[in-house]
Amino acid sequence: MRKLYFFILNSEMHNDVIEILDLIPQTLRGKFIVDVIRSHYAYEEIISKDENLRKTIKSRISTELINSQSSPEKNLNLNDKRFLNTSEALEIKEEKQDNLNDKEGEYVGIDIGSLYTKISLNDKDFCFKTLVEPYIHTEKVFNDRFSVISVNGNNYLVGPDASPRRKLTEDFVGTEPYFAIIGYCINKLVKQGIAIKGIGLGLPPSVYDSKKISLLKYQLKTLEIKTNGNKIEIPEKIEFLPQGLGAYIDFAWKYSDIARKDTIVIDIGYYTLDMVYIKDGVYISKMSRSYPAGMEILYNKIIDEFTVKYSDFINDVYVDLLLKDGKFTYFGKEYKFDVQEYISRFYLPEIESRLKDYVIELKNNGYKIDQVLLTGGGAVYLNDKVDGVYISDNPQFANARGYKIYVEYVERK
């Protein structure tokens, strides 16, 4: 793997690159990138025309990024990546594709959550409900509205095409419905004319290990995944990260100081509340924890209290509306229900209690905590209710963005 250095040339430099910087004319010292770090103005003119200089820079800057990549169940050393954008926040200008069918393609981050599947690309994020059901052939297959995804000959409807909602467990990872969702994501992008160069995916921390990853990569490359009879091409480059770590990478990418501090990441999902720990840029796998305290318990509380008040039963769709707007209209009747009290007095104390236990456990194991990062779909509703913690930008997409960054900027030797 490679160590990637991101910096502004007049800021403090790592010793390993000082000599290389001396090779570049002083007048051209601005922002630049070698391989994944692209110059804003001088790259084509200087680096690409001097092959020896290019080789020198590549050989001196390229180092091992993650020593444990062959055994991902060990600690991932993200500190080697360093994210050396200073407080000046180096702006990395991505080259925009004039042609969406550019053979180089785009890197994509896919976060398959219990409630929503989130997709992140260079210039946009979007999501769909994580729904998948077996499909039995009927005439509706000929309706353009439906995209049937088949995995080894077994057909599935995914996302808006599917109807039931079933609780997803850790056992879901690696099943045919799991691969059908990945196939659906890829097909959705291809239909928009987007070529995919690589995908980054997340795994629950409890199942993140080298054997699982090797098996998943093998399955993705060997399973017959099709849509309406046409093969879905799986990109050659596939990377996996523990859920929660993607959000850390996304945040450290934007704010360099976080990469140098010991961090707890709280990832609020629908069914689970996951906590991971990063010490000096190193993911400590043995300290990952998952609690049955996701947003589901808040949803159930709101449903129960709404039923008591109105004697009507609602489902998660209406809870979403209440969380967003505090009201909804059903058959011409407007229902108002203030859910903020339940977030502040019911759900937030649940998170605080779990965090307190986790901090005690970390300290008992000799670890310290400098900061806390709150992320995941549930973090959206806590933005104005917590102090002293960081919250990811657009937190429901933070993991997907981090997976995308990881798969794009991690280069194998």
TrEMBL record:
Domain (Actin homologue MreB-like C-terminal) ranges: 265-387
Domain of life: Bacteria
Transmembrane segments: none
First and last residue of the signal peptide: none
Alphabetized Pfam families for the sequence: ALP_N, MreB-like_C
Actin-like protein N-terminal domain mapped to chain residues: 109-246
Protein name per the record: Actin-like protein N-terminal domain-containing protein
Taxonomy of the source species: Bacteria, Pseudomonadati, Nitrospirota, Thermodesulfovibrionia, Thermodesulfovibrionales
